[in-house]
Hints:
By secondary structure, the protein is α/β, with parallel strands linked by helices. It is about 40% helix and about 20% strand.
Amino acid sequence: MNGDKRVAIYAPYIYPWMVHISELISGFEGVSECRFFSTGIYGNYPWEEYMLRTNVYRRFSVLSENIGHPALFIDFRRYSADYAILFACESVNTQFLMRVSKRASHLLVVEENSERAHRGLKGLLGYFKKIAVNSGYRRCGILVAESKRSSEYLSRLGISEDKIVVIPHGADIDKYRPREKDRGMLSRMGINEDKIVINYMGEFSEYKGGEYIAECALSKSFEERDMNVVFIFPNFGNLYDRYSARLGKCKHVRIRGKMTENEVVSLYSISDITVVPSKLMVGDSSDRSPNALIEGMCCGNAVIGTDVGGIPDIMGDAGVLVEPNNVKALEEAIVRLVSDRRLLAKYKRVSRERAEEKLDNRKYARRLFSLLEEGK
Length: 376
């Protein structure tokens, strides 16, 4: 490699793991600078500290598409990166950034795993957008698919398989790691230390499968029998109001608000099982690479997830995979782990082992940078 390289990273929303990989790449030999460009914070990540460590630009919503302020594209071009790692490949912003940074070698991280179905004006615009997206995929030498399903999706678009590498992203496994239970948090939430804690970390939404885990918690298995468990639900998401009253009456349910990153780590420390009940979507991508699953595994939680999107690739054999959109299957998986302490302990152990082997952000960042150096 000749000289030091300038690296640009773009993602529409800031997530902790993305900030972490930008900082890791900044420290790589041969890198003079790595800048992270974004258009803000989303969902369950309200931490202002991340905005101080990135270049954040205003965004505007146009026909449900988030468009970055012109300054984003001007600054990205002026930065004149040698390498550009671009997330949200099918967004208008990413497509424009590819075209204003022609000097850079581009690596696209593809999270989509299914074709979108739109009608009317959105369908017409989606048709032209698809042409532009496919053109960008064909021009780019390196496509990192977040899952096998993302790879299959690219193949259906006609992308050559020799351009595609499947690599699920990871997390900071030193920050997200097994810890002693935070007894202060247990006390504040009114949870006895002998309880098995089942954590639903994602927002309480249809996309994340909130209805399925809610129906599990409300089922007779937990409502009428003493299973010695406590479910923890978030109080935000488009399904929360539908279930809040019923869940609020359950002695084995706790409701929490949004948390800082340190509080999130503490929540994993008191949890035994992290459940990711993501919904199988029709006419859109299902859950790509849910951070709750990755973080839960890093923290040594036993994990239960549905067979959608990138979940099987993240989990491997280190968790319990269940049929999506199926309350009964999800309930049976939870009861199985709760009823067998040895099995629960096994899954706690192997989830952390897989995280160390497959979900370490240091390995992920190094792999992305190596692909750029090699030109694939």
